[in-house]
Design brief:
Elements (H helix, E strand, L loop, with lengths): L6 E4 L9 H10 L4 E7 L11 H7 L6 E7 L7 H7 L3 E5 L6 H10 L3 E6 L17 E5 L15 H14 L4 E5 L4 H10 L3 E4 L1 H4 L6 H10 L2
Parallel strand pairs: 1-8, 2-3, 3-4, 4-5, 5-6, 6-7, 7-8
């Protein structure tokens, strides 16, 4: 049972890469709303992850939305390849492109939802001139590039401010949080105004038989 339209987007960065297809099937059956796919190119962040060909091969395992988070610089080079690979949402980093508005327009022109993410060190005030072009704002509550980091409580005020910005502008966007989200921190994020929770190790670190309980605990924080 979903609660107040709260969406859970498990991050496959924390899944078993030897059986990614099976992991996606498992979280799909367990009640995931979206599948979060972190893309790193070794430029914006030091790590490397998945390319469009791998994402395309994973598309067959679920009909759930592919929530693709580009931690790449530049981002524009990857918009069309990941759209063709099966992305439903593409989120870029504000810090990674010189013409953010144009990038968001390109994503929408590809028929996808457009997201914009900011690192912990970036002020939410930088979003003001772009938010009306977005379908989603992704707040990083850890520094991008590595999994299993500790949640930064300093980012909760940022989430609250973005929620207030959304209300003032009267626009319909999702507010997503990524980084250190677990049963305890999920409650803080939801109270601050987020409605989409990305969780990696909080789900995939346990046996697949428990994925449903873990997803429900994030949604209901109980």
């Amino acid at each position: 049972m979903k609660k107040n339209n709260i969406l859970i987007s498990p991050s496959i960065l924390a899944a078993d890469f030897a059986k990614l297809g099976q992991e996606i099937v498992a979280v799909d059956k367990a009640g995931a709303d979206w599948i979060h796919i972190d893309i790193m190119d070794g430029h914006f962040v030091p790590n490397l992850t998945l390319g469009p060909e791998v994402v395309s091969s994973l598309r067959q395992y679920t009909k759930k939305l592919f929530d693709v988070h580009l931690m790449t610089m530049p981002a524009n080079n990857w918009l069309e390849p990941f759209a063709k690979a099966g992305a439903d949402i593409i989120t870029i980093h504000l810090e990674a492109e010189s013409n953010v508005k144009e990038s968001l327009k390109i994503i929408k022109g590809l028929g996808l939802k457009a997201g914009l993410s900011i690192k912990p060190s970036t002020s939410e005030n930088t979003l003001k001139k772009y938010i009306e072009y977005c379908d989603l704002i992704l707040v990083m509550t850890v520094n991008p590039g590595f999994g299993s980091q500790k949640f930064m409580t300093t980012q909760l005020e940022k989430i609250r401010n973005i929620k207030n910005m959304q209300k003032r502008l009267d626009i319909n966007i999702d507010i997503e949080v990524d980084g250190g989200v677990n049963k305890e921190t999920s409650k803080l994020c939801l109270e601050a105004g987020a409605n989409v929770l990305v969780a990696g190790s909080a789900i995939f670190s346990e046996d697949a038989k428990n994925y449903s309980n873990l997803i429900n605990s994030l949604r209901n924080h109980n």
